[in-house]
Amino acid sequence: MRVLYDRESDTLTITLREDRIKESDEVRPGVIADFGYDGSVVRFEILDASKVVENTREMQFALAEWPDPKQDGMQPKLTFKYDREADILHIDKCPPYPAQESEELLWNDVGGRVDRQ
After folding, report:
1. Residue 73 in contact with residue 66, Cβ under 8 Å?
2. Residues 8 and 36 occupy one common structural domain
3. What order of strands is seen across the sheet that includes strand 79-83?
């Protein structure tokens, strides 16, 4: 899956899979669904996206919880947030909180937040 915001055309495109487009329908004003030859949705296009999307310079996405065979219950969700201005991708299991400290990890340009308590 891929999400692309084109500032010049003010269009947000959400591509679910790479496939040829057979037809496109405007399913609601400003929302176009593109369908493949198998009849299923390939991508969505949102026109005038800056009027609809809260912040076109930021995207958050969370993976659904999945079972862990080693534990009872579910894994915590991961949240991905890309800060385009700072060119930083944040991957979190929980929101940041004051007791956390930031430190650089072994890899270049990779940091982490840790709780020393």
Report:
1. no
2. yes
3. 58-62, 79-83, 88-92
Tokens for 21? 């487009």
Query: Pick from 36, 52, 68: which residue ends a domain?
Result: 52
- Examine the domain organization and report whether 44 and 20 are in the same domain: yes
- Cβ–Cβ under 8 Å, residues 2 and 15: yes
Q: Do 109 and 64 share a domain, yes or no?
A: yes
Same structural domain for residues 62 and 76? yes
pLDDT at 21: 94
Domain range for 28 is 2-52
pLDDT digits (tens, 9 = 90+) for 7-57: 899 998 989 889 999 999 998 889 999 999 999 999 999 999 988 887 777
What ranges in the chain are assigned the alpha helix state H?
A: 49-52
